[in-house]
Structure formats: structure tokens, C-alpha cells
């Protein structure tokens, strides 16, 4: 069984560094041994949060990265910069960034830049909608194969794949996925990874779920959905909910 990981994507929240520090401190108190927790905060807050202190149970992540090392890329942050203040994770290919034009090729280059800088990529994949002919499975496969195309197979096991069906994300979501749908996709994602590496690697990769997950359904996604954890949007902005989901994951590991 893979170690569970609960990742918070704060997106463009909260409004001030003071609020960010307060939220991070409250979350820090609720982390537990045996479950990895990661907060992906807005870049301007990372330095202050780093000073509050990361632990073996709580790490910091970025929400995006540029694939180039340096240069004329106004507003962008490089993997080298993140590495220079020891940020351990970064989200790549979030559907909100794909909607702004990020392509599968960009994501592959970002994954490469991150791994070269010893930063763990949290690779978001997910279909916009589902069709009866199952074409969405081709979308998922293409996203996985492309995202992993530039890195050596020997490091596949260190990446995290976040299955985030776009229709299940955010306040305007159609509905959350069901644990059964999540289970199906976890199996499919591992099969895609296995086809380009091997079964052992495919099982070592942490595959997590994201899309309106909350305290009420977290246990079901971990048990029946076979998710190795979560990428949480709204639930990560509330320390109590985030802490509760960490606790659920810790109970789940002792089963
Ligand atoms: C997300 O945007 O990655 C996400 C999972 O958001 P939410 O949990 O709010 O649906």
C-alpha cells in the first residue's frame, strides 16, 4: 500500500499573507505521522510559510512552474527558483491552467524541469466530460503518456498523478465522481503507466483523487475508490476540514 498524501491547492487564496500564515499554522497542528500533507500555496506566500516551518509530515508546494530555466518570461517562476528555497512539490497541468492554454507538451516540459530540480510533480489529468463511447479514456491516456514522455522510466514512481475530472471540480461542479468511478480510473491510470513502464512501477505511483472531495466522502474514496489520497481545493482552505481528511487517511492506513 502506498503512503497516503493529502494535498491542498489554495489557488488564488487567501487574500493576505497574514491569513495564509494563520491557516498554515492551524493546518500544521493537525498533521499526523504516517500521512504526507502538502500545501500548494500562491508563490508570494511560500517564503513566509517556509519560515513557519515544514516538517516530515507537512511540505510546501507551488501551483505551477515554467519549464525554462531563466529568461524573459514575465510573471513566471522557474523550477530552479523553487528549488533554491527547497520547495518539494509542484502542481502541473491543473485544469484551470489547461483552460488558459497549457498543452500536454508544456506539461511534459514542466515535469522534466521539476524532476531535474528534485521537485515532485503533482500531475493533474482529467476529462472535461464523459461520453458513452468512452473516448474520454483516450484523453486520459494521452495526458499520462505525454506528461511522462521526457523523464526516465526509473523516476516514474516518484511522481504523483491527480485524477481530477473537470466536471467534478469546484463550486460549479456537475457532481463529485463516485468512489466506483474513481476506482475504475485508478485501475485505468495504473494500466496506462504499466504499458509504458512495468507493473511494479505502476503500483508504486501515487494516484490521488480531486474534485469536490470532502470530509463526508473522503473515507469512501480511500477505501472503495482506492485513491492514495486527495488534491483538495475548497476543503484545503478550512483547517478543520483539511485536518479531518488527514485523520481519515491515517485511520485508513491502519486497516
Ligand atoms: C481542484 O481545483 O484541484 C479541486 C479539487 O477543487 P475542489 O476540491 O474545490 O473541487
Explain the overall architecture.
By secondary structure, this protein is α/β, with parallel strands linked by helices. It has 10 helices and 8 strands. The chain has an 8-stranded parallel sheet. Helix 6 (136-147) links the parallel strand 5 (120-125) and strand 6. The longest helix has 18 residues, at 179-196. The protein is globular, with a radius of gyration of 17 Å. The protein starts with a strand and ends with a helix. 42% of the residues are buried. The mean pLDDT is 96. Bound molecules: phosphoenolpyruvate.
Give a topology summary.
Elements (H helix, E strand, L loop, with lengths): L4 E5 L7 H13 L6 E5 L2 H10 L5 E5 L16 H6 L4 E4 L2 H4 L5 H13 L3 E6 L10 H12 L12 E4 L15 H18 L2 H6 L1 E4 L8 H6 L5 E4 L6 H15 L2
Parallel strand pairs: 1-2, 1-8, 2-3, 3-4, 4-5, 5-6, 6-7
This protein binds phosphoenolpyruvate.
- Strand line-up of the largest beta sheet: 7-6-5-4-3-2-1-8
Structural class: alpha/beta
Oligomer: single chain
* Distinct small molecules bound, one entry per kind: phosphoenolpyruvate
Radius of gyration: 17 Å
The average pLDDT is 96
Number of strands: 8
Individual helix count = 10
The main β sheet shows up as: 8 strands, parallel
Structure characteristics:
alpha/beta; about 40% helix; binds phosphoenolpyruvate; about 260 residues; globular
Amino acid at each position: 500500500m502506498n503512503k497516503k498524501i493529502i494535498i491542498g491547492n489554495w489557488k488564488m487564496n487567501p487574500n493576505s499573507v497574514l491569513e495564509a500564515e494563520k491557516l498554515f499554522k492551524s493546518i500544521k497542528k493537525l498533521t499526523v505521522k504516517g500521512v504526507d500533507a502538502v500545501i500548494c500555496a500562491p508563490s508570494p506566500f511560500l517564503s513566509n510559510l517556509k519560515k513557519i516551518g515544514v516538517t516530515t509530515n507537512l511540505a510546501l508546494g507551488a501551483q505551477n512552474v515554467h519549464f525554462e530555466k531563466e529568461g524573459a518570461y514575465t510573471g513566471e517562476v522557474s523550477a530552479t527558483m523553487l528549488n533554491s528555497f527547497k520547495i518539494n512539490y509542484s502542481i502541473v497541468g491543473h485544469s484551470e491552467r489547461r483552460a488558459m492554454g497549457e498543452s500536454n507538451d508544456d506539461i511534459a516540459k514542466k515535469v522534466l524541469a521539476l524532476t531535474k530540480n528534485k521537485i515532485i510533480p503533482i500531475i493533474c489529468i482529467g476529462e472535461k466530460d464523459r461520453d458513452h463511447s468512452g473516448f474520454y479514456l483516450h484523453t486520459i491516456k494521452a495526458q499520462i503518456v505525454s506528461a511522462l514522455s521526457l523523464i526516465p522510466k526509473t523516476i516514474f514512481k516518484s511522481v504523483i498523478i491527480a485524477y481530477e475530472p473537470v466536471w467534478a471540480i469546484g463550486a460549479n461542479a456537475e457532481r463529485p465522481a463516485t468512489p466506483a468511478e474513481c476506482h475504475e480510473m485508478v485501475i485505468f491510470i495504473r494500466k496506462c503507466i504499466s504499458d509504458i513502464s512495468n507493473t511494479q512501477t505502476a503500483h508504486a505511483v501515487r494516484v490521488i483523487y480531486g474534485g469536490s472531495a470532502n470530509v463526508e466522502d473522503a473515507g469512501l474514496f480511500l477505501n472503495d475508490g482506492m485513491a492514495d489520497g486527495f488534491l483538495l481545493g475548497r476543503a484545503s482552505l478550512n483547517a478543520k476540514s483539511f485536518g479531518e481528511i488527514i485523520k481519515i487517511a491515517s485511520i485508513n492506513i491502519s486497516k
